[in-house]
Design brief:
There is one protein chain. The chain has 365 residues and is mainly alpha-helical. Helix 7 runs antiparallel to helix 10. The C terminus is likely disordered. The protein is 74% helix and 0% strand. It contains 17 helices and no strands.
């Protein structure tokens, strides 16, 4: 019995997954420390570290609650300038990057299983562009409804994916048709996004809209953390619970049906979950491209194709990629801040071409 239980423990423990998780946590911590240390209000790394772990903040639930909920800090608490700047302006940006990376990575991993297509991601399948179009439409035309941005982003992403699936359907779908349909829908949505700029009368709205189309964490604060926190706390646990269904889908429709799975219902439910995850990210950061494509592939190369490990790995690798990319976007051309979506696009474009070339047989259209 002892030998059996020891074997079970060894089988359950995955050293490569543990190493990946620890490496990603280290990357996020180091990148976050760099992120909070530079800006118009300059600090040293030591000052930034001390401010992040200021006992007046981390041991006081009233202060933490005030920051997260956007209320006033209790009058009996006095924070120095460094702590105020870091906790009010810089740390929220790091948290938004973490949540955005996790949601996009998990969304891409789910789409790749649902479509059985290694090239699938919210960006490639047009979901990101559909959600982005809905967000821009809300900002430019229905600005009074901006409080419902996550809802409209989700509806836009769902609508785009339905159109992509309808275009790709021909007695079934194929990986290549889904990618081509996604490119078509994404191009149309991008054109409509640019057309919306002509209806914007306020230059501030135009600048905000431009930041959405390129994907940016500039100016994000605790309000954006609140917006993305709730859907993230629902979506990510459900993604972990769905790992078994994702593994079954990878076996093929015939095998999945023989195991008693209602394939179309499960595929629809999981696609909706992936769309909601991507839409939550887009509602606070705009269209940050290729994260959902790169991360699942990198994690898959490390831990294998088992979605029980792949989802966990993506939850940590996604934040690492986005936070690192945002540090590069913010500091590469300092004092000019490049949108993080441009950095991920520069990384993801060549990687997408590499994956296309790697596929020796893509099938008929």
């Amino acid at each position: 019995m002892m030998e059996n239980s020891e074997t079970t423990v060894e089988e359950r423990f995955d050293g490569s997954l543990a190493a990946l998780v620890l490496a990603c946590i280290a990357v996020v911590v180091i990148s976050a420390l760099v992120q909070v240390s530079f800006g118009a209000y300059s600090t040293t790394l030591t000052q930034a570290w001390n401010a992040v772990f200021d006992p007046k903040v981390i041991t006081n639930p009233d202060v933490l609650g005030a920051l997260l909920l956007g209320s006033e800090i209790p009058k009996n608490v006095t924070l120095d300038n460094t702590t105020t700047v870091i906790w009010s302006l810089r740390l929220p940006r790091v948290f938004v990057g973490i949540f955005v990376g996790a949601n996009l990575a998990v969304s891409g991993a789910i789409f790749q299983a649902v479509t059985r297509n290694e090239l699938a991601s919210p960006y490639i399948l047009g979901v990101s562009h559909g959600a982005g179009l809905a967000v821009l439409l809300t900002l430019v035309v229905f600005s009074g409804l901006s409080v419902f941005l996550p809802v409209f982003a989700a509806l836009g992403g769902i609508a785009a994916f339905i159109v992509v699936y309808a275009i790709a359907w021909k007695g079934g779908t194929s990986p290549v048709r889904l990618v081509l349909a996604g490119v078509i829908v994404g191009t149309i949505c991008s054109s409509l996004q640019r057309g919306l700029f002509f209806f914007a009368q306020d230059i501030g709205v135009v600048q905000t809209a431009l930041s959405w189309t390129t994907g940016s964490l500039t100016g994000t604060g605790w309000e954006q953390v609140r917006i993305i926190l709730v859907p993230t706390l629902v979506i990510l646990p459900l993604s972990l619970l769905a790992s078994r269904q994702l593994n079954v889908l990878l076996l093929g429709e015939r095998t999945a049906r023989s195991l008693g799975m209602s394939v179309e219902r499960v595929r629809f439910a999981l696609s909706t979950l992936a769309i909601l995850a991507a839409s939550a990210a887009i509602s606070v950061a705009g269209i940050v491209g290729f994260v959902g494509l790169i991360v699942p592939h990198v994690v898959r190369n490390v831990v294998g194709s088992d979605y029980r490990k792949l989802i966990v790995g993506s939850l940590f690798a996604g934040p690492a990629l986005v936070v690192v990319a945002d540090v590069g976007a913010r500091l590469a051309l300092n004092p000019i801040q490049v949108p993080v979506g441009i950095v991920t696009g520069l990384l993801g474009g060549p990687y997408f071409l590499y994956l296309m070339r790697k596929r020796h047989k893509v099938g008929e259209l």
